[in-house]
Amino acid sequence: MKRILVGFIICFLFWNCGKKEEKIVAENKPYIISYEDTKLEKYYDSIKTNTNKYAPPPRKSFYGESQLIIDQKGDLFFYQQEYIGYICGTDSENDSIPYFRDLKPKDIIRIPQESLNNFISENILTKEKNRQILIIASQNDTIKNEYFLKFLKSNIIQTYHIRRTTQEEDTVIFYKKNNKYYDSDSIKWDKTKIKFPEYLKFVKRPN
């Protein structure tokens, strides 16, 4: 009888550990960018098909004032650019290629992973409400960084957009991490992945 009882307790403990591990995996479920993008597109397509009133999907932007980058290893980087509102002729509905932003290695800083929540709170949530927007860019399609996933789940920031990194970001991050001299003019850019406009007119975003 004692052997049966001991065996039951052992089985129960193993079952309980298995359930706990399953729960942890569910809580830290990876974020797959392509999957989430497809799901969002299907959602808006269904609205367009099944309702008379159609609300277009939110404008997608490659860049904003604040960018968080997750590299292939899961390391976190951050850079900001001057707040200029709306750039006429860029990030339009048909734009699928980002413009050259003249990003430099010195513009990018590394964020300690355990400090992500505090860093975002101090550097974004202290701004005016319409500027509390974060562009999140990942070098991998699947994001597994636990600190980032917990940050995303915490809803600290309400407005964000997640995309893959641009060619320019990948290039500058490479030079940043390897402490190499960077000169954008010496880079052999793939012109199918980046635009070099001769002139940009900056205007305020329409109300």
Topology record:
Blueprint: H1 2-27, E1 31-32, H2 33-50, E2 66-70, E3 76-80, E4 86-88, E5 109-111, H3 116-123, E6 133-138, E7 142-143, H4 146-154, E8 159-164, H5 167-177, E9 201-203
Parallel strand pairs: 2-6, 6-8
Antiparallel strand pairs: 1-7, 2-3, 3-5, 4-9
Write a structural description.
The protein is an alpha/beta fold. It has 2 domains: 49 residues; 138 residues, no CATH class. Helix content is 35%, strand content 17%. It is built from 5 helices and 9 strands; from the N terminus they run H-E-H-E-E-E-E-H-E-E-H-E-H-E. The strands form 3 sheets. The chain has a 5-stranded mixed β-sheet with strand order 5-3-2-6-8, with no helix packed on it. A two-stranded antiparallel sheet has the order 1-7. It has a two-stranded antiparallel ribbon with strand order 4-9. Strand 2 and strand 3 form a beta hairpin. The radius of gyration is 22 Å and the shape is globular.
Short description:
The chain is of the alpha/beta class and 207 residues long.
